[in-house]
Amino acid sequence: MKIIITQSEAVEKGIWPQVRTSFGLTKEDEVWEQEQFILTEEQAREWGLIR
């Protein structure tokens, strides 16, 4: 299963630093609020998005 999350949702849920690191983004990279990221089921579980 794949989980899709936007940048704004990741910020809201407090996992943006993990998402940013996982996708190799730095603080200087421009990211749109509605930009989507596809997470694996394992990542989503690890970050508390699903049980």
Chart the SSEs and their pairings:
Elements: E1 2-6, H1 7-13, H2 16-22, E2 36-40, H3 41-46
Antiparallel strand pairs: 1-2
Architecture overview:
It is a single chain. This protein has 51 residues and is of the alpha+beta class. It is built from 3 helices and 2 strands, in the order βααβα. It has helices at 7-13, 16-22, 41-46; strands at 2-6, 36-40. The chain has a two-stranded antiparallel sheet with strand order 1-2. The protein is globular, with a radius of gyration of 10 Å.
Keywords for this entry:
20% strand, 51 residues, 3 helices, single chain, 39% helix, alpha+beta
Short overview:
With 51 residues, the protein is of the alpha+beta class.
**Which percent range describes the beta-strand content?**
15-25%
Order of helices and strands: EHHEH
The average pLDDT is 96
Q: What level of helicity do the residues show?
A: 25-40%
* Structural class by secondary-structure content: alpha+beta
Ends: how far apart? 13 Å
Largest sheet: 2 strands, antiparallel
Annotation field: number of helices: 3
What is the topology, as strand order, of the major beta sheet?
1-2
Backbone CA Rg: 10 Å
The total strand number stands at 2
Which blocks of ≥5 consecutive residues have pLDDT under 50? none
What's the overall geometry?
Answer: globular
